[in-house]
Amino acid sequence: MEMAAGTMTGKLVRRGSYVFPPGLRLNLPLYLFHKFFKPGNPILLFEHLRRYGRAAHYRILWNDVVLLNEPEDIREVLIDKAASFGKDRTQKRMKILLGEGLITSDGETHQRGRRIVAPAFHRQRIQRYAGQIVELAGGVGATWRPGETMDIAAEMMRLALQITARTLFDTEVTAEIREINEQVNAIMDLYNYLVALPRAELLLKTPLPGMRRFRRAKARLDAVVDGMIGARQAEMESSANSAEARGDLLSLLLAARDDGAGGDGLKLTDDELRDQVLTLFLAGYETVANALTWTWMLLGQNREAEARLHRELDAVLGGRLPTLEDMPRLVYTAMVLSESMRLYPPAWAMGREVLEDVRIGPYALPKGTMIFFSQYIVHRDTRWFPEPERFDPERFRAEAKAGRPRFAYFPFGGGGRQCIGESFAWMEATLVLATLAQRWRLELEPGQWIEPQPKITLRPKSGIRMRAVERAVCRMQ
Ligand code: HEM
User: Is there an atom of ligand 1 within 6 Å of 45 CB?
Assistant: First the structure.
């Protein structure tokens, strides 16, 4: 749906010395019977609020919430005035799953985690994983059969999970982690409904069936991760192999000390280590899997772009498997992925909470206000992306990109909390797409209804059925 941005006018809302953007007059729960209010799908609400223009305000019970749509305002929150903001309550609530890992922590805990984890994600260090990524992608491609129909979302989840397990943790606990992740996802759905309730965490301690299931799933997840860490710790103690020689993220984290500027020189404690490992595991595969899934769907719908992608792959690779060195020449491949993450950003919204009274653009917001901005919404702003629903990788030619403000497009966030796995994600997505699209085309099965579902990440609600066609065969026909 193309949005009519700014078509609803409204006055700034003043309360004492505070100034809020225009927005909903009534408390959000009172809109229960309106089309835009579906607690399971906040994108509908954000699309509705987009009509107020630059920003919109609403209240959930006694909480003020502001949606920002203007790149300059988003920049103020993430960069210029970042110190006035912390993670919002929704993300903090994820602590019950992820503990004090990078995503959920704030302040000094976050900075210490970032100092220790960041070196392991340095562009040069992660490059060593390229060969394994291509090998695993080739392995999945080898299981496809011409004419076979599959759920490409499930295939990409399986592959991304294998890649994360092997490259970052040098482990094969794939089956177990997948099962547990599915359980956890199912339960996290509940939290879309509980966002507004302060101290909803208390519910977890109750014997409600959903809560009991969550507790069980979380205990299993912790046990798997603890087992993985324990085994590696024992191995590192008993062998002369340094973390550097083994080279995976887990070994590096076990050996790392907080030696950066302002660091305390100490290693991560066992609890810190578990929280960071769990965070990286869960953050690392579901996002990339979704980016690839939506890309296959878009290529299936856009034959011309697909043909251009094939031409590039044939010209650059000439039939051999891709390597890290090919990446700078896979220009169109990267443009396809960028455009896919514009339309279907795996991280579809971000949230912050105001820690001290702050001014953003023309607004004066009190401490406690929740702020949201949505990649899904901002990436469809017609000022920067005319005909926003059209898939057009040309929007990501260098010249076109140069004409847009920094936060017109931000699939990986920005500022001090920018995605730590961005380089890894780019490498993984580019090499997987190049490996598989070189050999296979995927055609959408007709007659299916594909619906984006905004959970923690943006995924297709009921998967996407696609038919595999081998490219060598296509050419001969
Ligand atoms: C296409 C793939 C990915 C997308 C779209 C994505 C998106 C994002 C976004 C938007 C944020 C910022 C959240 C915020 O500031 O509120 C973020 C943070 C983060 N991402 Fe990613 N991500 C991807 C892949 C990865 C991978 C592969 C890893 C790790 C292996 C990872 C680990 C993290 C972590 C740990 C954070 C928290 C960083 C911090 O707060 O210091 N992500 N990601």
Answer: no
Pure H helices in 88-208: 89-93, 95-98, 107-117, 123-126, 130-143, 152-163, 169, 174-194
33 CA distance to ligand 1 middle (Å):
35
> Is residue 4 in a domain?
no
Read off the pLDDT of residues 31-57 as tens digits, 9 standing for 90 and up.
888 888 887 788 999 999 999 999 999
Q: Answer yes or no: is 210 within a domain.
A: yes
Q: For residue 117, give its domain range.
A: 13-476
Q: Is residue 439 part of a domain?
A: yes
Q: What is the CATH number of the domain that holds 123?
A: 1.10.630.10
- 163 Cβ inside 6 Å of ligand 1: no
**Token pair 């595999």: residue:** 468
* Domain assignment present for 286: yes
Residues 6+ apart with CB under 8 A from 233: 254
pTM above 0.85, yes or no: yes
* Atom number of ligand 1 nearest to Cα 105: 40
Instruction: Output the pLDDT for position 474.
Output: 44
The ligand 1 atom at the shortest distance from the C-alpha of residue 87 is 16
Number of domains in the chain: 1
For residue 249, the ligand 1 atom closest to its alpha carbon is 30
Instruction: For residue 98, report the distance from its CA to the centre of ligand 1, in Å.
Output: 14
Q: How far apart are CA 71 and CA 406, in angstroms?
A: 7
Query: Ligand 1 centroid to 421 CA: how many Å?
Result: 6
Closest CA to 89 of 67, 102, 106: 106
Which stretches of the chain score pLDDT less than 70? 1-9, 173-181, 183-201, 240-245, 473-477
